[in-house]
Specification:
mainly alpha, homodimer, DNA-binding, Arc Repressor Mutant, subunit A, 7% strand, WH_DNA-bd_sf (chains A, B)
Chain lengths: 151, 151
Amino acid sequence: MDMPVRVADDVDLGRLDSALGFLLRMAQLKVYERFFETLGDKDLKPGEFSVLWVISRNPGIRQSVLGQRLMIKRAHMTKLIRGFEDRGLVTRRVPDEDRRAVEITLTPEAAARVEKAAEWFFDFEDAVGNNLSSAEQKQLTLLLRKIVGLN
Amino acid sequence: MDMPVRVADDVDLGRLDSALGFLLRMAQLKVYERFFETLGDKDLKPGEFSVLWVISRNPGIRQSVLGQRLMIKRAHMTKLIRGFEDRGLVTRRVPDEDRRAVEITLTPEAAARVEKAAEWFFDFEDAVGNNLSSAEQKQLTLLLRKIVGLN
DNA sequence: GAGAGATTGTTTCTTTGTAAACAAAATTTG
DNA sequence: CAAATTTTGTTTACAAAGAAACAATCTCTC
């Protein structure tokens, strides 16, 4: 009587269920999903917010540096920044010292908007570890920072 | 003397540097990057391996169930499976009990290939937590499993 | 059992992200 | 300092992934 597997919980993941890379991907997808469930109406996506936030903390930062820090490829960064420019959120300036580079700064409107968005964004981020104790959350943050190389 | 930020380590991330969702994304990107550095020549990507692996553990599993478990949307799953079919890795069968569904099974060649690939894949996965102590690795696995809802 | 609604998979369109080739400017090296 | 190399950003082409509309089938309700 070989009933086919019917529901997701019955699926045998084998060793995959404790593979770190796999779990990281699943966790990230899950968080993303939750984001769009609860904040899908906001007009900034997590990636967009992160970029704008980092620009706000580092005015005049260069595209390349921004990309390195947020792990966004140059080609993609170009598109993101142009998108922001089209929306009037950032200004680009080519510095005299290095005329290949582009320095990015928030417009005043964007700066205000990022501060506003930071409220719901970080509220959400704080809630990500909801089903963990606060000690566990601290621990997880620490471990992820190590994986990422932020220590 | 307002030197612009020059290198990635000087970038101020503000509160972002301990935001769980952000860290999860960064960690996942980092792992992905490392995968392609070390195993970029293999002809199976992590996502592809995971799907084939799960099929191998659950022969005759349905596309929908597979997608639910691996968090892959139906539309995307269709493309993945067709790709596998074109490569002769899986066979599709519409069961009589439910003629909307599709049951997926590995071809014998694919089954062998997955077993072979499992070696380097799980070796890689084991190495993901390299710069963590083995206690930390266990802890991280546990916490991620909680986030994902695998407990 | 006939119709309303839900599920399953596919198709088409769009978005997000990467890869490779390129141009311009800076740096290195001989 | 001139030629070779590297860095920075852009463009073009493509791959990965999601959204929405659709068709077929199944289930539920009356």
